[in-house]
Design brief:
Blueprint lengths: L1 H20 L18 E6 L5 H17 L2 E6 L4 H13 L4 E4 L8 H9 L4 E4 L10 E4 L2 H16 L4 E6 L5 H17 L1 E7 L4 H14 L5 E4 L2 H14 L4 E6 L2 H8 L5 E4 L2 H16 L7 E3 L3 E4 L2
Helix pairs in contact: 2-10, 3-4, 5-6, 7-8
């Protein structure tokens, strides 16, 4: 009996210590800083090879400068493994706040949880994280944006026309949400004959569009989950000699110029610089103990040729 009692006490002690170890010691947690100039923000961007995310970064930098806080920026180059390592490095560098624009909403969860474990607040931009505690997501209403694109096609071309869809990076919340919004309308009023991923990339958009045109010669419109893919699709369509409506998503400068020139039909325009600005503001509020909404929306607008 004595041996059983010793074993029981030992196991109880191990369980107790294990539970305690789930929380980091106080010295490992970031200290609360009252002076804004002492605050360091870490920004992880999915890729700076896309004008949209460059504008998002610029919005963060501009607001951080206005508020007098420091920013360290890392570029994941659309590599989820690199992004996780980047965020872990930012944590090691002692940032007080993490702003993350995920490459992959599922993969980034481990990095978010690492930040949670030592009490560093996380704000996500444009795309969400599937797991871990995120103070707020600052983003456009991607579902609504997808619906706006489909509704515009119906308005311009009528119902039951054949359309194709260029999807973004698989696993990104923006891909899922824009696709969901589009299909909310398209599955009832249009014929989506084909859809393929082009990873939010212009060159891939061109290649994938060439393949779609060969397989689906009668499509009348294309919805691309971002402007970069839309611009690539336009190149493929021009080479084919066909007249096909193309609608993008983001509202970057190249797309807006293409719309003015009559080469692109429309884009669901976001405000990436505003997303960056709102993310910094929300993050500072969190650090100062203020309550923030779980989702902070940035307005959308459908841009067409005037």
């Amino acid at each position: 009996m004595k041996k059983l009692a010793v074993v029981f006490i030992s196991l109880s002690l191990l369980l107790f210590l294990g539970a305690c170890s789930m929380q980091p010691p106080e010295w490992a947690k970031p200290a609360k800083k009252e002076d804004l100039k002492d605050i360091k923000i870490g920004l992880s961007v999915s890729t700076l090879n896309n004008p949209f995310f460059v504008s998002l970064k610029d919005g963060v930098q501009k607001e951080a400068k206005t508020m007098g806080v420091q920013v360290k920026i890392v570029d994941a180059q659309n590599d989820s493994a690199k992004q996780i390592n980047d965020v872990e490095d930012l944590i090691q560098q002692g940032v007080d706040l993490l702003l993350i624009n995920p490459t992959d909403s599922a993969a980034i969860s481990t990095a978010v949880q690492s930040a949670n474990n030592i009490g560093i607040p996380v704000v996500t931009l444009d795309r969400s994280a599937e797991k871990g505690k995120v103070a707020t997501l600052v983003a456009s209403d991607n579902i609504k944006g997808g619906e706006m694109a489909a509704e515009y096609i119906v308005k311009k071309l009528g119902e039951n026309v054949q359309v194709a869809e260029l999807e973004g990076v698989p696993g990104a919340s923006a891909t899922r949400e824009r696709g969901k919004g589009f299909h909310n309308i398209a599955d009832k009023k249009l014929k989506v004959t084909d859809k393929q991923s082009a990873d939010f990339d212009r060159t891939k958009g061109l290649t994938v569009m060439e393949n779609l045109l060969q397989a689906n010669p009668d499509i009348k419109a294309v919805f691309a989950h971002n402007d970069e893919m839309a611009l690539g699709a336009i190149e493929a369509i021009n080479s084919s000699g066909k007249n096909i409506m193309v609608i993008g998503f983001d509202g970057n400068d190249d797309a807006l110029n293409a719309i003015k020139a009559g080469k692109m039909e429309a884009t669901v325009a976001q405000q990436p610089d505003l997303i960056g600005k709102l993310a910094v503001e929300a993050g500072i509020d969190v650090l100062q103990g203020k309550k923030v909404s779980k989702n902070i929306p940035a307005p959308l607008k459908l841009v067409v040729k005037e």
